[in-house]
Amino acid sequence: MFWIFFVLLIFSTGDCILIGKRDNNILIGNIYKSLWNITQNQIKSTPSPSTPSSSTTTTTSSSSSTTSSSTTSSSTTTTTTTNPCISGNLLWNKTGITVLGSTSLLVPASGVFLNANDTLYAADEAGYFVVWKLLKNAINATIVAGNYGSAGSNSSQLYYPNDVYVDRSGNMYVTDMGNCRVQKYINGSKSGITIAGINSSAGSALDQLSYQRYFTFDSTETYMYVADAGNHRVVRYLTNSTSGTNGVLVAGGNGPNNTNTSLNTPFGIHYLPSVSNDLFITNYDGHSVIRWTPGASSGTFVAGVPGVNGSDSTHLNTPMGIKIDNYMNMYVVDFANHRVQLFCANSNVGITIAGNGSAGNSATQLNNPRGIAFDSAMNMYIGDDVNGRVQKFMKL
Q1: Cα three-residue angle 154-220-288, rounded to 5 degrees
Q2: Closest CA relative to residue 178, chosen from 281, 287, 50, 43
Q3: Which among 387, 389, 352, 390 has a CA at the least distance from the CA of 373?
Q4: Which residues contact 149 (CB under 8 A, 6 or more apart)?
Q5: Between 364 and 4, whose confidence is greater?
């Protein structure tokens, strides 16, 4: 085992970057901050846009890093010890802590997930086309799916991964949006198996997906519910399904509209059957949140004004991620308003708990945030896409 180190002074930012090599591992980071450990990866820190139509792929040849541990449990429940709306303790510390991503290694995160051990997973959608894993209290993140900087459609590649989930057996699921498929990685495997959609084939048949975004799972992890954005519908699949198997239409599917019988580019979705039999779905192009019983012909709008964007407390602007807690409070990532809104149960008035409504990269700002997740202490994690980071907001 040997070490080689080089020090680079980046004049444009004033950062002092340390580059080291130990065996086949490359370590990169700010001397005064954490090192990122990525096996055999060639790093480029050029920011990338967030959508397929405008994104530039950084072409580097690399292999995925190895993980230092395997995940053995997960949770679908957003836990609160006391109802934040009843107790009046609505606040999270609005000064975020960057737990993933840095100026030397941007991680434009979309969907984020934490398991029961508070291990963080983040889908790096348009930066390097991988899924990152960060153990609780760890410094170094590892790549657990995708080839760093190399988008593609084979079993070891991803193309605009959007969301990630890890079940209680350690199997990982990824919505591979650009390839119109959902990939399953069995117990730490780097080779994905397509369990929904047909690889690189967008379509509206029930065995196809069209640029799906986020997903959610039932409490037994038997079914997953996929927000099939391009088809304006939610489709249910078995988690042991295979490519080309028909899904079951459970919401929408009759075109993009802002009525309660339709969905309009569904993006975020959450299902918490311990407190409700309904799906909670964000309509990205509809600027709203709708509550929908799976299989019903219509839903009920619960936040935002359908078809009307805005920035006051009753409006949303292209919402993305969503979570509900055990008290039926909703947490909505308000993408174009650069904030996170809390809607207490049975209220359509949002309370801003993260971000200040203006795009920026300070610790109190967000820039086109996407995904949301909570750890066991109800600390909040946000995929802060354009800033290339995951921000942690401590529960007060």
Answers
A1: 75
A2: 50
A3: 390
A4: 41, 42, 44, 57, 58, 59, 60, 62, 128, 129
A5: 364
Give the alpha-carbon dihedral of 55, 307, 205, 335, to 10 degrees: 30
Sheet holding 130-134, edge to edge: 109-114, 120-124, 130-134, 142-145
CB 318 within 8 Å of CB 51: no
Average pLDDT over residues 379-388: 98
Provide the pLDDT for residue 185: 98
Q: Does domain 97-393 have CATH number 2.120.10.30?
A: yes
Place of tokens 């969905």: 263
Structure tokens at 162: 């959007």
- pLDDT digits 0-9 by tens, 4-57: 444 343 333 344 444 344 443 434 344 333 333 333 333 333 333 333 433 333
pTM: 0.81
Segments of the chain assigned to CATH 2.120.10.30: 97-393
Tokens of 197: 């959609």
Sign of CA dihedral 166, 170, 171, 174: positive
> Would you give the DSSP letter of residue 312?
S
